[in-house]
Design brief:
CATH class of the largest domain: Alpha Beta
Strand order of the largest sheet: 4-11-7-9
CATH architecture of the largest domain: Alpha-Beta Complex
Distance between the termini: 83 Å
Largest sheet: 4 strands, antiparallel
Shape: elongated
Structural class: alpha+beta
Strand content: 15-25%
CATH superfamily of the largest domain: DNA methylase specificity domains
CATH topology of the largest domain: Adenine-n6-DNA-methyltransferase TaqI, Chain A, domain 2
Number of strands: 28
Oligomer: single chain
Number of domains: 2
């Protein structure tokens, strides 16, 4: 089919003799522009051909739907070759041809690209070749017009759909409306657009590095929080009234006194003696080392918190639907529903019990506050002695629990005994609370990320995790 238009001497598009300008769609176009359709600006529309032989030696390169990228480009990672006898003259591509993917999944049907390669190429029956009339439209401008129609979903309601596959009818493709500026302006538009897209691509590449930077930033801040660097200025103006070692011993004394009190009450009332829910051995305290502040110590998590796993009650989804309410119901990775009453009403730290530990990106723990219900997929830890739940969560959120887990599948389990026996830094509650309120200082520490991490590592090791593993201890 031939175009019904041609440029004048100044390169401006003007209707040829006897050509009736298509009706406008109601939107205002700049002076000298026209609203037309694809059929009027191309010389040829040709579907491709199918071939079962796709790896023929010395065959003709055969572009398929996987060779059309999402950004209007050709992707040549995998190019099939077909028998030369199947590639008829009408199937050979020329530079400047526009390839449209007219058969694909519903989301991908309509993507397009320009053919700009040297050599002999043909194309499959999933593609349709449009050969622009060079006197009417710039091939790059046509490509971007079709690309914008695809992204806008113009072809969605015009496609024929089958199972996992959709097709744009030829008539729907040719009748697609496009704005047509003068030829010289088309080229200016393409030049400007490709310049902007190059900047967009560059920005996307930089943005793709942000998640990794944020991850290293988080690691750096947590490492600083658990090594004393985050609150170094706080210690300069606040004198410690209780060292971390003294704090751990006080917590142990308070737990023994509470257990003794409950035992006496049980004897007097004739009730069953309470189960001892603290570490049976004495608190294990190590003097500060590896750069820890002098008022700090290293101890077991179980020495400064109480595990409340015995209070958990799992409720399946069907049962929860009959007990709808306003109380959050928590599992391994956060809230999973609602329920009508609560088991806990305080600040607690929940630690994953059975989940995908290996390769996990999510934190291993999180804080819950107020009334809630917890199922049996998360350990429930109550910090003691005034230790803030937020600080306990900082110590555990990205701790290397993998060596403490069991299981042979992707879903592993960390037992309660192992969970409460890991070792980590401890400090007085006042400083622990200060570390959870230092986001401005954390931002400043984040500036040192490039010097604190190894960019060549595929999965950078957690700075804090390396130190904690040296103190890890399992009973």
């Amino acid at each position: 089919m031939s175009v019904r238009s041609k440029p004048n001497r100044e390169g401006e598009w003007a209707p040829a003799r006897g050509y009736a300008e298509p009706e406008r769609d109601g939107s205002e176009l700049p002076e000298g522009w026209a609203s037309t359709n694809v059929a009027t600006v191309i010389d040829d529309c040709q579907p491709g051909f199918a071939s079962g032989d796709k790896n023929v030696e010395d065959g003709v390169s055969h572009l398929r739907m996987n060779n059309i990228g999402l950004l209007g480009e050709l992707i040549l990672d995998l190019v099939r070759t077909v028998p030369e006898k199947l590639a008829k003259p009408q199937h050979e591509l020329q530079r400047g041809d526009v390839l449209v993917c007219t058969t694909n999944s519903a989301k991908l049907v309509g993507k397009c690209a320009i053919f700009d390669l040297e050599g002999r190429y043909a194309f499959s029956n999933h593609l349709t070749r449009l050969r622009p009339n060079r006197d009417a439209i710039d091939h790059s401008y046509l490509r971007w017009c079709l690309w914008s129609l695809w992204k806008a979903g113009t072809f969605d309601d015009k496609c024929k759909h089958w199972v996992n596959q959709s097709t744009i009818p030829k008539d729907a493709l040719l009748e697609a409306g496009i704005p047509l500026p003068p030829l010289a302006e088309q080229r200016r538009i393409v030049g400007k657009l490709e310049l902007l897209l190059e900047k967009v691509s560059s920005s996307q590449q930089r943005m793709s590095r942000v998640p990794g930077l944020l991850k290293r930033f988080r690691q750096s801040v947590l490492a600083a929080a658990c090594s004393g660097k985050l609150t170094a200025d706080w210690r300069e103006v606040n004198e410690a009234t209780e060292t971390a070692a003294e704090f751990v011993l006080r917590v142990q004394d308070e737990r023994r006194e509470e257990f003794g009190r409950q035992t006496e009450l049980a004897k007097k009332s004739g009730e069953r003696k309470p189960k001892k829910r603290m570490n049976e051995s004495a608190a294990q305290i190590e003097e500060p080392r590896n750069g820890l502040p002098s008022t700090w110590c290293t101890t077991r998590i179980g020495d400064v918190c109480e595990c409340l796993d015995y209070m958990r009650i799992p409720i399946n989804r069907a049962a929860r639907q009959t007990r709808s309410g306003s109380i959050p119901y928590y599992g391994a990775n956060g809230q999973v529903g609602w329920i009508d009453t609560h088991l806990f009403d305080e600040d607690l730290v929940l630690v994953v019990e059975d989940e995908s530990f290996i390769g996990r990106e999510k934190p291993f723990s999180y804080v819950v506050r107020g009334k809630c219900w917890v199922n049996n997929h998360a350990h429930v830890l109550r910090p003691l002695g005034g230790m803030p739940a937020d600080f306990l969560n900082i110590c555990l959120a990205y701790f290397d629990f993998v060596p403490l887990t069991s299981g042979t599948t992707g879903r592993r389990s960390a037992s309660r005994r192992k969970a409460v026996r890991v070792r980590g830094p401890d400090r007085v509650p006042a400083e622990a609370g200060a570390s959870a309120r230092r986001p401005p200082h954390a931002v400043a520490l984040g500036q040192s990320l490039p010097r604190r991490t190894r960019p060549h590592r595929t999965r950078p090791r957690h700075p804090r995790r390396t130190r904690l593993r040296t103190h890890q201890r399992v009973a």
